[in-house]
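User: Run a structure prediction on this.
Assistant: Running it now.
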Amino acid sequence: MSFNAKRDAAVADHAIADRALLCTASGCPNRWSLNFGKPLCRFHAFAEPHAWPQVTQEQLDAETDRALAGQVPKVQATVKHWSLAEKRELLQGLRALFASAPASSGRAWATLLRRREQAGEPLTAAQRDMWRAGERAGAPLLSDIHPIERDDERERLRSYQERVREYAEQRGIEL
């Protein structure tokens, strides 16, 4: 015997139409599954008889929700399709932005890790070893730079970040 979805659905619909297979609680849409003197669905079988109207309403609501869930239109995300020329222009602009990025000692990560540890944040042994080795490398850390120079470095970084944001905004890119 082969699987035939239409035939099986028709057989199931015909079987459900037979009230003898449905829960005997008034109006319940479920098939009975337990028989404690009366054939009841699992929801009514374990509920007090005075609560059956509420249980039936919950089952009808659930059946309606399941039916409506299948009819909800699916929203498709709109994706911008970039042409090759647009991609090249974007990448050239990014290349120019990165070229204009402020130079750093390349060791700001060590300063950040040291600050995190000094603030009481637990670091892994590897993180502690790395920032300490970075300090021993000899180049000055960001925190060792004179405060005026540090402010200049921060201002250059803020300016660079602002240029990146403007570039992304002009191209419709969300950051």
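The mean pLDDT is 76.
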